[in-house]
Amino acid sequence: MRPLFVTWEYPPYKAGGIAAHCEDLATTLADQGHEPVVLTYGDEQETEYRDGVEIHRVPSTDSADNTLSWSMHLGHQMEKKAVNLAKNNNFDLVHAHDWMAVPGATGIKKTLGLPMVFTVHSTQKGRDGIEGQYQETIHNLEWYGTYEAEEVITVGREFSEEVKHNYNVPEEKVNYIPNGVDLEKFDNHTNQLNYNDYALDWEQIVLFVGRMYPQKGPGHLIEAMPQIIEEKPEAKFVMCGSGATEHYKGIAKEVAGEKVHFPGYVSDQELLSLMKSAEMTVAPSVYEPFGIVPLEAAACQTATVGSYTGGMKDTIIHEYTGLHTYPADPNSIKNQVTRALEDPGWTDWMGDKARERVEDNFRWEQISAWTTGIYSDALE
Amino acid sequence: MRIAYLVKNFTDGDDLSEYVKSLAEYAASQGHDPCVISFDDGSNYTVSDNVEVERFQLHFDGDSLYTWAMMMNNEMKAKVVEKMKDEEIDIIHANDWTTAPGAVNLSNHLEIPLFLTIHSTENQRGFQGQNSQLISDLEWEGTFEADTVFANNEDVKNSLLFDLDLTDEKVCVADPLHDGWQERILNRYREIIGKEEEVEVEV
Q1: Which end of chain B has fewer CB atoms < 10 Å from its terminal CB, N or C?
Q2: What values do phi and psi take at A143, rounded to 5?
Q3: pTM for this model (two decimals)
Q4: Residue of chain B nearest A69, judged by CA positions
């Protein structure tokens, strides 16, 4: 099969999880004998062949008033590119990833007469709400994507219900396929962490990884820090991620002082080392359609303490692969982090079980096979 | 010739609509096969029976005319591709920036000539609205890709030459206030398509 991926981000450009998702899925599809083509944003027109995947980048504009207009312009440029590419070798279908890909993907669908598959990674309603006209237009685009797609893929079981409800999508059109992890990437990585860059020898790293926005809940973890430190002084919080870092750093330093560290930019390799060295990761998200952090931690044999919300209801099994907390509840975070620190042997055991579960349920080979099944349905 | 006229909406009394109506009716009277394709805003229109009109729905509310128009173009493309399945279309004739992006991609995909009428440029309108630069970019792209650009009058032509850097040969003034403007346009069609002999313009 020759699917055309439409995504605004693809490595090395990445802002969120969509880039990694698309790369892992496209690479695995190529490994399985398919011919995925990726159409994405770039500073200039360029074509690249990497890991069996044909990648075409098209530039957008610096003149857009906002991200919506920017994505409309990018969509038009992507469609132009797709029309030219199709002259030599047409595609079987177009696969859009999130709302920013909807203008381009629907244009390609209409012009080239292709079936469309739409993966919804999160919703505007869940991210920021739909109060203003701008937010409402993004919500409309998400609806339009689900309406135009022959098949809709969601990355979380509970999230599927949210998508069906938000956009009135028929039950039979929505398919739940979880995200996955590339275990080889984790297994081939050598842990070269200089532990003392982050914590003292006797301290245990409690790791937060994610964009520093309210949706990811860093504030709730920070609120829990003083009580955790009081009960378990060995706790050392390491907060990695972009976003409103300075804002959260200011608050955290006030309540936790030297017991919290914001390392700033951390390379992918260093992050893997941190995940492997941490006692646990904490994912205090308030809204999380899937949540890749518990799976990446699991691949590193590290347990996660995460909110009982969205995808983390599936990716964490309480007291088996990690611990659940009530969402947006600092006291609940305190209780579960303290439990995990209290019994490191048990926490390590949960890390081992998390790894086993990832091996059994969240491999890209499996996810790719499910995806091609959805492609076949879209082509019928 | 089967000509697809693309216009944002098609309604009695609207400048662009009246222009397209007049041109399409004239083309039909000359034995051609015009089809007007536009967004269905629910308003009334009257047109000769020889002109086919296809209007389409759009279930999308944008935060600006620009975002709305970009998504409207998607539905427009679907309609043209659908019409193409019934019978070959020889020419695409778009009107203003609102139909330019779809027209460019359709012309490229279907490999048929593109004509674009610019009724006014963003520069002429003051370049002050939301997304003015993007709109002007679409005007530039449409005029760049078109085989011939029709200007409604000399002022529009001047703006095309000086603001959008078009060459004089590419611009044809077809002023609806002067007799023979429709024939001038049809002559350009014939010239580009090379199918029929040029007919004298009577001014």
Answers
A1: C
A2: -60, -45
A3: 0.90
A4: B67
